[in-house]
Amino acid sequence: MILDPLRAELAALDADGLKRRRRVIDSPCTPECVVDGKPVVAFCSNDYLGLANAPELIAAAREAAMHWGVGSGASHLVCGHLRPHETAEQALAAYAHFPAALTFATGYMANLAVAPALAGRGDAIFADKLNHASLIDAAQLARAEHLRYPHKDVAALAALLEKSTAKQKLILTDAVFSMDGDLAPLPELLALAERHDAWLVVDDAHGFGVLGEDGRGTLAHFGMKAAPRLVLMGTLGKAAGVAGAFVAADPVVIDWLVNTARSYIFTTAASPVVAATLTESVNLLAAGNARRAHLFRLIAQLRDGLAGTRWQLCDSPTAIQPIVVGDNHEALALAEALFQRGLWVPAIRPPTVPKGTARLRVTLSAAHSEVQVAQLLDALKALQ
């Protein structure tokens, strides 16, 4: 039967501890939630500042729905670019300290837009080996030569750039790596881009709103400013607490994307409710230093609390704090043991992470309390 090969593959995934399933959440995105009917404290959301359920954003969404309705009706270039979209793009550009910005329905679509628009056949894309799947897919979609360098290895990247005879070069990297929580060496990457007349495209999904002055992201963390060859992507469903993504760059680049980026041109624009809510979210991000300070206190509490235990954290200064376990089944068992204790921490397995590095991916939020982090620490110590 036609389904038999799929059943066999699913059974093989299950045997290897790689089969995935969805849990059903019966509550808003907050640390205290109801999952599969069980009350738990969640340490798995990317809602880093606790804005997903913020009263200010709920009020903004309600007001926008009453004024603009809920659908945009068409793609941006037909008749779907409403005033809330324009206002949100202006607010995001100003907050990120870039001259222009373009919004997308998702971060995946934003990444699929940029690389193919800036590189194609005869060109070369140089990508960190631990880049997010959307960046890998974007590089493949571009049909350029796809050269991957060892994680954060600036010397290896420099050697690849030196050897390349491509007419156009593009360096592609996450800013904060989503499964390790570490930072890309962005100043060194920009220096290489300038030396080799290359683009530098940075996916700051997990740094935007959290790192740097006023939470403006990983570029601000390193004291970097907008430049003609620098293209920034940031997602808006994580620290911003809403949905979608944006690309910030020189106005010429933004105009080029509007005219060539297929994942922008050939899709219905996001809801005006989302766009209007994003403008309010930018205000909260800019005024969010107290939230960020609390988040970093929680990060220190977790790291200090696990020092000297079996559970060694990766070298991450961010809200992403992975505990590498190794074996798929052991990671699943640990996650289940925590869940039975009322703590939801997901087991992350290949192909999301390299084989043999299955882990618990602890993510912290400004909405967590010190008591909740202490509860997680106590449970992890009891299970070591």
Number of contiguous helices: 15
Roughly what percent helix?
40-55%
Topology, number of strands: 13
Distance between the termini: 46 Å
Strands ordered across the widest β-sheet: 3-9-8-7-6-4-5
According to CATH, the homologous superfamily of the largest domain is Type I PLP-dependent aspartate aminotransferase-like (Major domain)
Order of helices and strands: HEEHHHEHEHEHEHEHEEHHHHEHEEEH
Question: Beta-strand level of the residues, as a percent range?
Answer: 15-25%
CATH architecture title of the largest domain: 3-Layer(aba) Sandwich
Could you outline the blueprint of secondary structure elements for this entry?
Blueprint: H1 4-15, E1 32-35, E2 38-42, H2 55-68, H3 76-80, H4 83-96, E3 100-104, H5 107-118, E4 124-128, H6 133-142, E5 145-149, H7 154-163, E6 169-174, H8 186-195, E7 199-203, H9 218-221, E8 230-235, E9 245-249, H10 251-260, H11 262-265, H12 272-286, H13 289-306, E10 320-326, H14 328-340, E11 343-344, E12 347-348, E13 358-363, H15 370-383
Parallel strand pairs: 2-11, 4-5, 4-6, 6-7, 7-8
Antiparallel strand pairs: 1-2, 3-9, 8-9, 10-13, 12-13
Helix pairs in contact: 2-12, 4-12, 5-6, 13-15
What does this structure look like?
This protein is α/β, with parallel strands linked by helices. The protein has 2 domains: 20-49 and 289-383, Aspartate Aminotransferase, domain 1; 55-286, Aspartate Aminotransferase, domain 2, CATH 3.40.640.10. Helix content is 43%, strand content 16%. It has 15 helices and 13 strands. It has helices at 4-15, 55-68, 76-80, 83-96, 107-118, 133-142, 154-163, 186-195, 218-221, 251-260, 262-265, 272-286, 289-306, 328-340, 370-383, and strands at 32-35, 38-42, 100-104, 124-128, 145-149, 169-174, 199-203, 230-235, 245-249, 320-326, 343-344, 347-348, 358-363. The protein has a 7-stranded mixed beta sheet, sandwiched between helices. Helix 9 (218-221) links the parallel strand 7 (199-203) and strand 8 (230-235). Helix 2 (55-68) packs antiparallel against helix 12 and helix 4 runs parallel beside helix 12. It starts with a helix and ends with a helix.
